[in-house]
From TrEMBL:
One of its GO terms (molecular function) is DNA binding. Keywords: DNA-binding. It comes from the Bacteria. It comes from Marilutibacter penaei. This is DNA-binding protein.
Amino acid sequence: MNTAEHMIERYGELMTYEQLAGVLKRSESGLRVTMARRTSSAAQVLDNARIRIGRRVYFRTHQIAELIDNS
């Protein structure tokens, strides 16, 4: 089982800020600051993985798994 399959099984197709922060071992507020600065390549990948549904923000799990595999 690869990283993407494992993460999709655990979190589903979309992840919340809370879940993503847990996976990256960061606080939610630290993750939001990183996303706001957009200076690192990881922040750009996270921005591309982001999807808004109404007022809620989610992240595509398979893109997060690719980020983890490539780091």
